[in-house]
Specification:
The protein has about 625 residues and is of the alpha+beta class. The protein contains 20 helices and 25 strands. Strands 1-9-8-7-3-2-10-23 form an 8-stranded mixed beta sheet. Strands 15-18-19-20-14-21 form a 6-stranded antiparallel beta sheet, with no helix packed on it. The chain has a 4-stranded antiparallel beta sheet with strand order 12-11-22-13. A hairpin with a 2-residue loop joins β24 and β25 (about 510). The two termini are about 45 Å apart. The relative contact order is 0.13.
Length: about 625
């Protein structure tokens, strides 16, 4: 029997971020247990070897600003960096990198190994221990067959696709959460026994090819940015931990991808074999991600298309494996062979691993609050795909929030809930607790109504002060470097704002020049340099965005202030929504199911109208008066 302050179950992107955040907060040796099936698979990239993208890149930047590890690991192992959506404004720019699939988890493991607060234990959970409605720990079985009881008042469950995971390739079904790794069966039964309502979702992955069998040079090159932008501002100045020195950026060789496309003959072959496709034969009943469909789904939904683009992405510098981005599939192997060998450049390609789909259990997220804390069991937190999300970045974001709040809970400190106007992390957590996912949830910039405020460039300004206040930067060398860099950045921003306001350029202040379409960050940097100021590139990007968006941001902030009363007005936990007969039946049912914490959350529930919110405010005030009167009478 061993006792820890926080136990994290699962070593995927949610799990490692949860352990890292808890370690940052607690700062005590062996205070965090990280229980995983395989220590050498911590931080593994089970699908696409890439980090970031549209909205996902903002999440990674926010994780980094809060002292997380994903951005550092991505910067240390990226083989191609590119900011997406640069033809549009900075509010929707999406940093992305293609990662070395072998080096990324090694970087994560080096970072974890640098922390004496984290003890990694190889094994699986057999039972969640609960006493008097609160978590007491877990009962586990180690990979060498020993039984362990780990005690804690806070457990973060991050099971990924492993809860009753079932992999499908054609008619073949194999238990497992990802290729070569077993499913976790007991956790689902344990959660059901505790009264949790489970759902089931599906995700998928494409085939991997042998690069030496592709006519590589015949295909168009796809390079990253000529001047790569890192996820972490730390990476611009260099950082390092034992076994992972990063004294420059980019750290490793940058390479190109290649582009090809599917062929009409393959589409016809897919249609002829839909009866063998698990998604169409009835073998899979779960719903997959709408915005990342399989190739068989694309062929059916977009029947008029003669081809679909495919990016051939090398999985690393020391491997010949190539990821086929664009043809996720669970079709039988012979059909996958036909799809690949009809693509230009791939006529002789060898498939090293066939694509497959994974079905897995989730916990419907109306049973958690916006920190990942379960409503049913005190001290039990969920993070990652267990909550119905998809993607490394969404998982890592939840892991950070859950790990931090688990640590805060054990210390008796107030929890951290980020607002929708503060971070994409806030949007993500709010969406999860107000909308039960019918498909794996994926973050998009369109989900953030305040995206002008939530830009990738200003994440340190929004979130690093919160990280400092909560002790998330810790006392490590990395934490001290991050704090020093933030102070330097803040000083540069203040100096740059004042300088731009008073310095003239083409009859205008530099601040006003930024509103012109032809005056971008490059032009601003040149004008500042000519006038004797040379702020860093990240600061220039923020200064330019602030100046360009200033009128819109002012209106946005005014609207946030106007709505703040509704957004933050708390709803008492004792409310009996079923008795509020003045509300519509649909509204009463939605409120009873989700138990929103604020009027703002209530306003975003499915089935709730603006008039319902107005009436709810009146009914809550009436119920409060009646309760106060009854308590006074009893005295």
């Amino acid at each position: 029997m061993q006792r820890f302050r926080v136990i994290v179950v699962g070593g995927g992107h949610a799990g490692v971020e949860a352990a890292w955040a808890a370690a940052n907060r607690l700062g005590c040796p062996d205070s965090v247990a990280l229980l995983t099936l395989r220590a050498d698979a911590l931080g593994a990239m089970s699908c696409n070897p890439a980090i970031g993208g549209l909205a996902k890149g903002q999440l990674v930047r926010e994780i980094d600003a809060l002292g997380g590890l994903m951005g550092l690991a991505a910067d240390a192992t990226g083989i191609q960096f590119k900011v997406l959506n640069t033809s549009k404004g900075p509010a929707v720019h999406g940093p992305r990198c293609q990662s070395d699939k072998q080096k990324y988890p090694q970087a994560v493991q080096s970072l974890l190994a640098s922390r004496p607060e984290i003890r990694v234990i190889e094994g699986s959970v057999e039972e969640l221990l609960v006493a008097d409605g609160a978590i007491a720990g877990v009962r586990a079985r180690t990979t060498d067959g020993r039984h362990l009881t780990l005690e804690s008042d806070a457990v973060v469950l991050t099971t990924g696709t492993f809860m009753r995971g079932l992999m499908h390739t054609g008619e073949t079904k194999t238990p497992g959460g990802r290729h070569g790794e077993a499913a976790a069966v007991g956790i689902s039964d344990s959660l059901r026994a505790l009264g949790f309502e489970l759902g089931r979702l599906k995700t998928g992955t494409p085939p991997r090819l042998d690069r030496t069998t592709i006519d590589w040079e015949s295909l168009p090159e796809q390079w990253g940015d000529a001047e790569p932008v890192p996820f972490s501002d730390l990476s611009s100045g260099g950082w390092g931990v034992p076994g992972l020195a990063c004294d420059r950026f980019p750290v490793i060789e940058q390479i190109a991808c290649r582009q090809t496309q599917t062929h009409q003959s393959a589409h016809e072959h897919i249609r002829a074999n839909l009866h063998r496709a698990p998604m169409f034969s009835g073998q899979i009943h779960s719903i997959g991600p709408r915005y990342c469909p399989s190739i068989e789904d694309k062929v059916v939904r977009f029947a008029e298309r003669e081809s679909h683009g495919v990016f051939l992405e090398p999985e690393g510098l020391d491997t010949e494996w190539v990821y086929c981005n664009g043809i996720a599939t669970s079709l039988p192997r012979d059909v996958q062979d036909e799809i690949v060998r009809t693509m230009p450049g791939c006529e002789k390609a060898t498939i090293l691993r066939y694509g497959y789909a994974v079905e897995y259990d989730t916990v419907l997220p109306h049973q958690i609050d916006a920190t990942g804390h379960t409503r049913r069991v005190r001290g039990l937190f969920f993070a990652g795909q267990i909550n119905g999300t998809s993607g490394y970045e969404e998982a890592a974001a939840q892991g950070l929030i859950a790990g931090l709040n688990a640590a805060l809970l054990t210390e008796g400190e107030a929890r951290l809930v980020l607002g929708r106007d503060e971070a994409y992390l806030g949007v993500l957590m709010d969406d999860l607790v107000t909308k039960t996912p019918t498909e794996p949830y994926r973050m998009f910039t369109s989900r953030a109504e305040h995206r002008l405020l939530l830009r990738a460039d200003n994440t340190p300004d929004r979130l690093t002060p919160i990280a400092e206040r909560l002790g998330l930067l810790g006392t490590t060398e990395l934490g001290r470097a991050r704090a020093a860099l933030f102070r330097e950045r803040s000083a540069e921003l203040a100096r740059g704002r004042a300088f731009m306001q008073r310095t003239r350029h083409a009859q205008k202040s530099l601040w006003d020049c930024c509103r012109e379409a032809a005056f971008g960050p490059v032009e601003l940097a040149a004008a500042l340099h000519a006038a004797g100021e040379s702020p860093s590139a990240p600061v220039v990007r923020t200064l330019h965005a602030e100046a360009r968006y200033e009128p819109y941001v002012e209106r946005e902030r005014a609207e946030i202030r106007r709505r703040s009363d509704t957004e933050t007005r708390r709803l008492p936990v004792w409310l009996d929504y079923a008795s509020m007969v003045d509300l519509r039946t649909e509204a009463r049912q939605a409120l009873g199911r989700y138990r929103p914490e604020t009027l703002g959350q209530a306003s975003r529930l499915e089935g709730i109208t603006p008039s319902d919110v107005t009436l709810l405010r009146v009914l809550v005030e009436r119920a409060g008066r009646e309760r106060a009167a009854a308590e006074g009478a009893s005295l």
